[in-house]
Amino acid sequence: MRRTTSNERTAVLKRILGNTAHCRRIVGALGVFLLMGVASLAAAVNPIEDALNTADRLAGDKARDASRRPAEVLAFFGVKPGMRVLDLFSGGGYYTELMARAVGETGWVVAHNNDAYLAFSRATLQTRYAKGRLGNVRRQVSEGDDLVLPNDYFDFVMMALTYHDLYFVGDNWPAIDAERLLREVYESLRPGGIVGIIDHVAPAGTGYEAAQRLHRIDPALIEGGMRTIGFDLDGTSDVLVNPDDPLDIPMFDPAIRGKTHRTVMRFRKP
Fold first, then answer.
1. Which residues form a coiled coil (predicted)?
2. What is the pLDDT of residues 240-267, one digit of tens each?
3. N or C: which end of the chain has fewer CB within 10 A?
4. Strand partners, 154
5. Same structural domain, 117 and 209
6. CATH code, 195
7. What residues pair up with 265 in beta bridges, in sequence order?
């Protein structure tokens, strides 16, 4: 069957509508109407908001929403349907679940943990993945220095409150070769891929010792470390700023826990 050309379709419209000027006005109006409809549909379908409003979210997750502001954070990082995501040191999986729901059936999330995070979050993880919840999540367990990822695979890598852990050493937390791990992350991203980093802010100039002493890090060290690997700083957000945080007390201190001043940084692989 011969397909009609655009000129033939315009001619039919002209015969129906009478004259060219009128035809153009109607076609223009139809175009505006269609664009408004698409915009309205896009506004109505917000995968991140839908993820937040899922009926079976864990109560503990909902309780953290006010201080973590995940809608703004994930929108800033650009999480959207169809993405391949790595949640590095995903802990109890707060962001894993939100991202899994936001990327939808056409995307998936790799939830990475090491043994320490796995033990710390065991009860939460049992509930989170019970009865086949989050079918588009693949779980991976390895220490930082043993992490192996596929090349040119992920669209987005999340590091939520864990970048400072690359420079922490504890009884159950082996030392990590931060540069090697970050290069592994770099190679795992597709060109244009994003790393989203959230972390507790340490005073400027404190160096990596703040990671050991305070579980915090100077944002300048994050930027320098990521640029050394080859990432470009693509943007920062003040969505988690807290000017009342003194910065010089451990993030576990009850006076500030859950309310720390946090940096939110977006890095892009060229």
1. none
2. 999 999 999 999 999 999 999 999 999 9
3. N
4. 189
5. yes
6. 3.40.50.150
7. 197, 236
